[in-house]
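Study this pair:
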Amino acid sequence: MKIESRIFNIITIFFFLSAIVYGVWAKEPVGTVALILVGGLSLIIGSYFSFVARRIEDRPEDNPDAEISDGAGELGFFSPGSYWPVGVAGAAAFAGVALAFFHVWMIVLAVGFLLIMVAGLVFEYHTGQGHH
């Protein structure tokens, strides 16, 4: 994760420098603000990656002298498939339509559907204390 954080921090510097150069040459505020916001977003990602990199042990791909066999074994749990993301997308689309037409009753329903779908997605594999 250290390499990924360095990449995003370099991208952050590039966007902030681009915003300065663009602001001086073009004197156009919208593009300057957009470049500053993109730099801020890449700063958030780079900061998160460096925060995580300090707390986890090195991965085999982070070691330049690693062998192929160092990466063997279980990599983690990957969901075989889920229909919850489809429900989240549908509820978010319904919320967008509700906000576009600004029907309060539709907004309330959409937020309710969205909360149910997000809860279903988050707790999909939660089995509780008795099932471990």
Notes: The CA atoms of residues 68 and 83 lie 35 Å apart.
